[in-house]
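Weekly puzzle thread! Below is a chain. First person to post its structure in token form gets bragging rights.
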Amino acid sequence: MENIGMAHVHTSLYKGCNSIILENEWVKVEVVPSLGGKIVSILYKPSGKEWMLDSGERQLEQPMYGSTFTDWDMSGWDECFPTIIACPSGVDNEISLPDHGELWALPWEYVIEKNEVVCTVKSPKLPYRFTRRISFVNNDRIRLGYSAENNGEKPIPFLWVPHPQFAITESTRILLPDSIQQVLCVDGGAKLKIGESYLWYDISLVSPEVTGDARKLYYDGKVPLGWSGLYEELSRNYLIMSVPPDKVPYIGVWIDEGLYNDRVTCALEPSIGYYDSLETAMGNQTAQIIPARNSFEWYLELTIGVGDWSKVI
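Winning reply:
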């Protein structure tokens, strides 16, 4: 074990896969670099709350590049880049991007650098390098620092969202800023209709009951504030996700009540680009463009704890 700043960093095994653990007295984060840099565990030690959904009976194994995301383990935290929905790359007409982007199906490299775990991956088709740095800001706050570097001679457009499949184990309120009164349904399942707007508070409570339904919602426009969160109404565990809204200006929420997974999960998805398809984001001019021989950087912070979540926003 290596003591790096406030954190202890050591290698381990997670379900037979080599992993890296970054932890302090309050929080443990575990990453499997070979499986798309997947974050498999975010544990808040004082309450014992595990925020990431595990793979259950599904086997953890190296996905096939270009395959369908839902055919694999459906667990943990993956990165969707440069798209979510399969579509053209926007760089070369002959290059198509796979379902949920490229990164989740690729093995990543890693190094331990000062007080950070740095994971990197290169595209097999496009000249970019994607980097994610994980560190602790303080005892209860995790920082994920991102960069996408274009090493080619043409601009590269991209869309990015994190895809953290958080475990819903009790009645949980999905938190958005009060100024977000309505959300747009873009995938309705059985309960909601695609293209309709709904009052957020009316649909923001999620139960652990498996119904076989699912839905995807977006705030229709740029966010007024760059935070979202989850709050367990019985145990009072909370998770607050914060991003810089000038660089990550959109927010989506994915709720799966057993349509694709075997348990209930919710993904908070602050987004660069609106929404889901890079092709769509390029069409509505919300995709981010990295100029040739240039890069783009952003970050995401997670604050976890128990009690009054409003004190941390």
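Puzzle host: Confirmed. Bonus trivia for everyone else. The chain has a mean pLDDT of 96.
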